[in-house]
Amino acid sequence: MKTYLVALLLSINLPLNAAHAAAIEGITPKATYDLVQMQRADVLFIDVRDPIEIMFIGFTDEVDVNIPYLLVDRNHWDSERKRFRLYQNPKFAAQVEQALFEKGLNKNATIITMCRSGNERGLPSAQLLRQHGFPNATYMINGFQGSRLKNGDKAGFRIQNGWQNAELPWNPKPNPNKIFRIDSTLN
């Protein structure tokens, strides 16, 4: 019910109140899609995944832009997590502000961030944006790929919830005009 109320507030373009600033209520993939369809000009929808991840998992052209919240540091291996280390994009807030400017919006616009699962980058990126003066930043719960199944033959597979599993539009390849690139105007 709470997610529906937040989606309703976002869909009528009212700013989220101070109570939502501390504990950000996410918005579902379907509500995100509907909001983007109804108010595309008034919403900035950002894919906050590293572009390498997008290349292997997929992309939706419904996002306005890809601005990574965390970037992969290919020079340092994290042996505990068995992956390259991630570091926070030091230009993230400035790049989001630039994307808003390019879309003709200001820091009070509705911003929705999307990562793979909603947890590691989606919510933290929205929290960081709020701390940097973007009062209507929120995140898409369950992200692009969704949550892993915990039990059964398909345990570990991301085949529940999320953008892809809601059968919303996506493509296996990124849009070169929206993907984060070193030669981008957002750098």
Structure description:
The chain has 187 residues and is α/β, with parallel strands linked by helices. The protein has one domain (2-165): Rhodanese-like domain (Oxidized Rhodanese, domain 1, 3-Layer(aba) Sandwich), CATH 3.40.250. Helix content is 31%, strand content 16%. It contains seven helices and six strands, in the order αααβαβββαβαβα. The chain has helices spanning 2-11, 18-22, 29-39, 51-57, 92-102, 122-131, 162-165; strands at 43-47, 65-66, 70-78, 83-88, 110-114, 137-139. Helix 1 runs parallel beside helix 3. It starts with a helix and ends in a 22-residue tail after the last helix.
In short:
The protein is of the alpha/beta class. The protein has helices at 2-11, 18-22, 29-39, 51-57, 92-102, 122-131, 162-165, and strands at 43-47, 65-66, 70-78, 83-88, 110-114, 137-139.
Which range best describes the helical content: under 10%, 10-25%, 25-40%, 40-55%, 55-70% or over 70%?
A: 25-40%
Low-confidence stretches: 1-21
What quaternary form is this?
single chain
The average pLDDT score comes to: 87
* Shape assignment: globular
Task: Name the CATH architecture.
Answer: 3-Layer(aba) Sandwich
**Mind summarizing the main beta sheet?**
4 strands, parallel
Separate helix tally: 7
Q: Provide the domain count.
A: 1
The count of β-strands is 6
CATH homologous superfamily title: Rhodanese-like domain
Task: Give structural attributes.
187 residues, alpha/beta, Oxidized Rhodanese, domain 1, 4-stranded parallel beta sheet, two-stranded antiparallel ribbon, 6 strands, disordered N terminus, Rhodanese-like_dom, Rhodanese-like domain-containing protein, Rhodanese-like_dom_sf
